[in-house]
């Protein structure tokens, strides 16, 4: 059985055809234009494959509450052509097969859970630290979905006394994303993150904020595995710094069996999103 | 079918016999002594009833990871006779019927979900603000359980600039519990919470901290219902203050359909714990 998967991102759509063992048969990347132009290319790619179902991990915010009339619709986004766009309606119109829809981060988390760094972990959290900060969660084999989708990047944490930056989040100022995303780093130091590589205080502060957030996720979700991805995590020294700070901050209040096993890097390079999108088909409910 | 339920607390054990519709047939409250004295009373109470299964919501911290050798054991607790006590072993020895074990807060949450303020909510969070702060969570009809149990009272939040108190948590200082539990209020103002009733700035700060924490829980779990109980919430004005602050802090980043429906008071008086303990029998897996 062939399954289609789409990682629908704000800058690119990755489309792939694969199976339920994580094998990818074919794959393309399409720059994200308006919905019509983009879906024309998407349809063209899938046309030659007899896919029997389609899984989609989408950028957001997107309404995933099945009780809402706007279910499946992109909500507020700076990309005006996609604002309030009925993504699920379009998918169903273009593909008369079962369609499964979730967030991009949930799909990425499911990909790592099925085939990567989350394998055999009953509860897997996947955090991406990039332009923004987002997270997906897999619990008991399925992606987590509350009444709306989580927006874990926007939790409040304690700003450190020596940090004079007011935060980059347009909604909350100094929420986690406002203090620790790639955008926040760029605004705080007025230079791109990759150019700050040698500046230790930058990464010490970054690790401090990410560790605080991870402690909060541990206290709330008690995940078995926490995967940290995204552009900022290309600073690989962050992993060790974060592990140490998480251990210090938890201060033995909850048992952490092995922090090296708990906090890890992704394993699927850039394919967790599309592999997870395909995985949605056999892990989520049909919509 | 008759089911036994125990709310095993640090100061009292509430034992009840009931059915799977929330009806309570008989109930007693036993002060918590050492394990032997306590279980002698517990056994005596249940002896006259032909209960077919037993559900227990226990104080903690307790090891609920089935992969651990210490599964079912009370961990660190100031109550020395219960420290490292094999609670599940004792329950199984005393009651040769199926036994279901969870945390006290998860049981309370399940009770409210089944029969109280969480009815018909797909995901229900129950927070108790008392001597400490704890929370239980019901997701898709069952109590939530990560690799360990959540300790949601110990998340980090932002301390307000005008608050000079360093926090009462022995592990984290100014975590949520350290800033906003009944103990924290007492230590900050050197007087018991109920005597501060008329002091508006006390409750304004309290609502500020609880609202921040609730925003974090919303961002991570996206619950459909949030129930606030415990001694501190006897200051009923807190509900309105918290709702308003949560709305302000979320700042429309995620949609809150109706904050009065989202953040509510418990409905089962002091019976959510024991009714939820009975509910564990038909909602959780046998252990
Ligand atoms: N080597 C690096 N070191 C630090 N920051 C980086 C590095 N590479 C990219 N970034 C930052 O990561 C962000 C982009 O994250 P990425 O995950 O690639 O994209 P997006 O979040 O938009 O999907 C930018 O803010 C960029 O400055
Ligand atoms: N009316 C009240 N106003 C404010 N605080 C109160 C009130 N009643 C009790 N408290 C506080 O609540 C805490 C006890 O919480 P409770 O839920 O009753 O017990 P526990 O958490 O030990 O199970 C104490 O710190 C007490 O000071
Ligand atoms: Zn934010
Ligand atoms: Zn604490």
UniProtKB/TrEMBL annotation, chains A, B:
Gene3D superfamilies: 3.30.420.40
Keywords: Magnesium, Metal-binding, Zinc
Database matches in CDD domains: ASKHA_NBD_ROK_BsFRK-like
EC main group: transferase
Annotated catalysed reactions: D-fructose + ATP = D-fructose 6-phosphate + ADP + H(+)
Catalytic activity, EC: 2.7.1.4
SUPFAM superfamilies documented for this protein: Actin-like ATPase domain
Names of the cofactor(s): Mg(2+)
PANTHER family registered for this protein in UniProt: FRUCTOKINASE (PTHR42742:SF3), TRANSCRIPTIONAL REPRESSOR MPRA (PTHR42742)
The family this protein is said to belong to: Belongs to the ROK (NagC/XylR) family.
Descriptive protein name: fructokinase
